[in-house]
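hiii so um. not sure if this is the right channel but i have a protein structure encoded as tokens and i wanna go backwards to a sequence. like what aa goes where. can anyone help
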């Protein structure tokens, strides 16, 4: 009888510790953030090739730049810089 009580006590203590560990684990990082000021807007979002990209819009010049993290060089690289009007242009065939 003592051995069963000891086993139940250890299992209960383990369950309580696991519940406590689950309760206090930090939330995973989420990259869905937008920052807007007068001259610049910055937004993080998924890119087509996978991973996350940082989109920076310069409101004064009307340019948007996309930055991604390059794993091989361990640095942030500019993927492209384009005019915002190009993103909303209607193709000539339509």
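sure thing!! here u go:
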């Amino acid at each position: 009888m003592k051995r069963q009580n000891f086993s139940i006590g250890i299992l209960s203590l383990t369950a309580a510790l696991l519940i406590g560990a689950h309760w206090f684990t930090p939330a995973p990082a989420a990259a869905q953030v937008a920052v807007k000021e007068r001259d610049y807007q910055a937004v993080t979002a998924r890119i087509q090739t996978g991973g996350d990209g940082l989109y920076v819009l310069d409101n004064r010049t009307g340019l948007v730049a996309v930055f991604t993290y390059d794993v091989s060089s361990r640095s942030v690289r500019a993927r492209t810089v384009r005019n915002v009007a190009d993103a909303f242009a209607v193709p000539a065939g339509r």
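oh and Residues 34-87 form one domain.
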